[in-house]
Amino acid sequence: MKTVTQYLTLIISMLALSSCKKDGEIQDTRNVLAVSFSILNVGSTPLEAMVDTFRLEIPTGRFDLTRAFPLPAAQRNMKLSITEKATGKPVMEKELKKEDGRADISFFYMNGEIGNVPQVPPVEDGKIKIIYMFRPVKTNYAEPVDIVLGKYYLTPKVFEEITRIKNVKANEFTDPVTISTFTTSGQQYNGQPSAVSFQVYIYKAGTNEFYTQGTGYSWNPTGSTAPKPSSATASSKLYIFSESPGNYMAFTKNFEI
């Protein structure tokens, strides 16, 4: 007499065989619709997604989820609706069809508007790669800026530019910038030993003048810097940062990938 375990094994084997095509490929015979969410929700406004009758909450920050939603027997599509949870303001509506395969829902949401999420480049040995979004929430600076990456030599208090991202617009993602990793010890400036710090300055576009000139805020050579990773370790980062001045201009990292 077969045991319960043997019967279960036989049933599972039969189901597995029935789901295979003759060419050996696996065919999913379930009536489901797969949806992959990759949403960057910046700010303090959670979102809510409805996939047919299924409800999902999308918190602030990064939201990544892939889920299969069961379809009624003869149904082949579902309606996706995303709104602001608190206000009900529509963010996105879309018809999802099973015949189109997995639905990829990817966007960036901030200040009531959606945009594309940039692809963070892969990490490469000996390289630092960064994407920025600058949010001038205190100065409301409206002109383009240059985001400049460089070394600050404590002796003799000199900033040396490595590279810059030109004509950066507020509240928009930059293209990726790449520099080589470097150590902050054992450095020299004009033959003189000096400690070094990794700094990211913000200039008025096309100049070496700090964008804070004329805004009432001062710039500190070592305290006023955009977010950045360690200079000695290979990395690939995306930073969203905003102004958060005190005695001098400083910045808050709002989001990091």
Biggest pleated sheet: 4 strands, mixed
| Strand neighbour order, sheet with most strands | 4-1-7-8
Helix share of residues?
under 10%
Q: Please report the distance between the alpha carbons of the first and last residues.
A: 58 Å
- The secondary-structure element order is HEEEEEEEEEEEEEEEEE
Radius of gyration: 26 Å
What's the pLDDT, averaged over the residues?
Answer: 88
Proportion in β-strands: over 45%
User: Which residues form runs of ≥5 with pLDDT under 50?
Assistant: 1-28
Question: Helix/strand/pairing class, anyone?
Answer: mainly beta
Q: Give the number of helices.
A: 1
Number of strands: 17
Q: Assign an overall shape.
A: elongated
Note down, in words, how this protein is organized.
With 257 residues, the protein is mainly beta. 6% of the residues lie in helices and 47% in strands. The chain contains 1 helix and 17 strands. The chain has one helix spanning 4-18; strands at 32-41, 47-51, 54-58, 61-70, 77-84, 90-97, 103-110, 113-115, 127-135, 145-153, 158-168, 177-180, 187-189, 192-194, 196-204, 235-243, 251-256. The strands form 5 sheets. A 4-stranded mixed β-sheet has the order 4-1-7-8, with no helix packed on it. The chain has a 4-stranded antiparallel β-sheet with strand order 3-2-5-6, with no helix packed on it. A hairpin with a 5-residue loop joins strand 5 and strand 6 (90-97). The chain is elongated and about 75 Å long. Mean pLDDT is 88; it is low at 1-28.
